[in-house]
Design brief:
Largest sheet: 5 strands, mixed
Structural class: alpha+beta
Helix content: 55-70%
Strand content: 15-25%
Distance between the termini: 41 Å
Order of helices and strands: HHEEHEEHEEHEEHHEHEEHEEHEE
């Protein structure tokens, strides 16, 4: 099992574990939100039912007041008849019942005027009947609220006002209605509430909602339609105010709870992504340091034996050693010099020069051609022999060498290898095509990862180094352009032309 496979398995394990944690967290959050939502809904339903009950109570109370008012009218009519009987009764008549009827009126304010408009009898007044201003105001108030009782037989008139008990009950009734409306809009469920008239267009009162403070009629209508879509408006009928409608929607807390799982998922995603990017940045920085440190140390370690080999070559030349052998030795020394130069350039910004790509790649291939199996046919083609690109020949030759060696390994030392050079605008393309084993499409990206290898003894660093040289030092791209298992692979390199 290679390093890349192990890393991939750990990634899958950690991703699965993170997914399980996220799912459990979201499930539990949704569970809690659902419970609170159910409790909130139950509270709203109880509140709306209480509204209906209170409205019914107000209507019932108003009916009682109307009946009480009718009863008081009947009592005043009886009082008028009693006053008439007393005034017209014979001297010896038994008026006990009539007297009791009049004396039992201890609550209804009464003013009795004769046919000439003089006040003859008053009862249950808050001020003396000698106060003409008070009497006039009482008459006006009585006339506005109750019809006058006219004793047609004698032309007398009776003005009466609501009884003290009735007025106290009426005040209580008004307080009850005001309290009902206030408790409706300022409810224990803390839901946004709007009370409208019977047309459902005019807002009479609102609570727990600020968006309608200075809204236009269009915005008000839009908001009421939104609230109607959430919950059916509650219809109530209030005495003296007619039919009204109560609109309400979910509380702000409930709305936030509904959004909480989504926000939590987003926050978890942002946290995981940020963590991944941070650690990925650190990991890449550490890899760069390892690459640079290893390359510099390799160049340094090669320097000493290379100098020694150059000295031995010069010594052997003075001793008359066969020149062909010395030439091969010097080629290998030059090769070591090239390798040392390559490692020394890692970590520092190399100089890029405009070079002829056809000639340069042919030169690189010529060196490799003599060192690979004769069963491998390597060819270099170009759509234009004058194509140039900005490269560092030392590092770029390392790229070509790595890809060619990987291709030869993929062909098991037998097959065809073609390097085609083309240009489009200011981009130069080098397509390296082999007839090897091919690469599965799912591995097209991972072949460039450090540690990825299909060789039993490979380290999986070659293509990773190639990508680093092309991307970081040449500001180019390298990728698998085409591959099919059993037929071959095409790597494409893009550099600036």
């Amino acid at each position: 099992m290679n390093l890349y496979t192990t890393k991939q398995r750990w990634k899958i394990f950690l991703l699965t574990l993170a997914s399980v944690i996220v799912i459990i967290t979201l499930w539990y959050s949704n569970h809690i939100a659902a419970r609170i939502r159910a409790e909130e809904r139950q509270k709203v339903e109880l509140w709306s039912e209480a509204i209906k009950r209170r409205a019914e109570l107000v209507v019932f109370t108003q009916k009682l007041f109307d009946e009480l008012k009718t009863e008081e009218r009947k009592r005043v009519d009886l009082l008028g008849q009693a006053y008439y009987i007393i005034g017209e009764a014979p001297e010896n008549a038994d008026l006990t019942f009539i007297s009791n009827l009049i004396s039992n009126n201890s609550t209804i304010p009464v003013l009795l005027f004769d046919d000439k408009g003089n006040l003859t009898i008053s009862a249950n007044l808050d001020q003396p009947d000698s106060n003409e201003v008070y009497i006039d105001s009482l008459m006006s108030a009585a006339r506005s609220k109750n019809n006058m009782v006219l004793l047609t037989q004698v032309g007398q008139k009776i003005y009466y006002d609501d009884s003290r008990l009735f007025r106290q009950l009426q005040s209580t009734m008004n307080d009850l209605i005001n309290s009902f409306i206030s408790e409706t809009v300022i409810n224990s469920a803390s839901v946004p509430v709007v009370v409208t008239d019977s047309s459902q267009t005019i807002i009479l009162k609102k609570g727990n909602i600020d968006t309608l403070a200075f809204a236009t009629p269009e915005l008000i209508a839009s908001k009421l339609n939104e609230m109607k879509a959430v919950n059916t408006p509650i219809e109530v009928v209030l005495p003296g105010q007619g039919k009204q409608y109560i609109f309400y929607e979910d509380s702000e807390v409930l709305q936030q709870l509904q959004l909480f799982p989504v926000l939590q998922l987003i926050l978890i995603g942002v946290f995981l992504l940020s963590s991944y990017l941070i650690f990925s940045t650190f990991r890449k920085a550490e890899q760069n340091q390892v690459w640079v440190g290893m390359a510099k140390e390799t160049a340094h370690q090669l320097g000493t034996p290379l100098s020694s080999l150059m000295a031995w070559s010069a010594l052997l030349e003075t001793q008359g050693v066969d020149k062909s052998s010395l030439e091969e030795l010097n080629k290998d020394i030059d090769r070591l010099n090239t390798i040392t130069d390559r490692f020394s350039k890692i970590g520092s910004k190399p100089e890029l020069h405009e070079v002829n790509m056809t000639d340069s790649i042919k030169e690189m291939i010529d060196y490799l051609d003599s060192r690979v199996s004769k069963k491998v046919v390597i060819s270099v083609t170009s759509e234009n022999a004058a194509i140039t690109a900005y490269i560092n020949k030392t590092l770029f030759s390392w790229v070509i060498e790595n890809i060619v060696k990987n291709a030869i390994d993929a062909m098991d030392g037998e097959g065809k290898l073609n390097l085609n050079i083309s240009q489009e605008n200011n981009r130069v393309f080098i397509d390296i095509t082999d007839t090897g084993k091919g690469i599965p499409k799912k591995q097209w990206q991972t072949v460039f990862e450090p540690g990825f290898t299909t060789k039993k003894r490979g380290w999986g660093l070659g293509l990773s180094l190639v990508k680093r040289i092309i991307k970081q030092y040449h500001e180019g791209r390298i990728y698998v352009k085409w591959s099919e298992p059993g037929k071959g692979t095409t790597f494409r390199i893009e550099v600036r032309g």
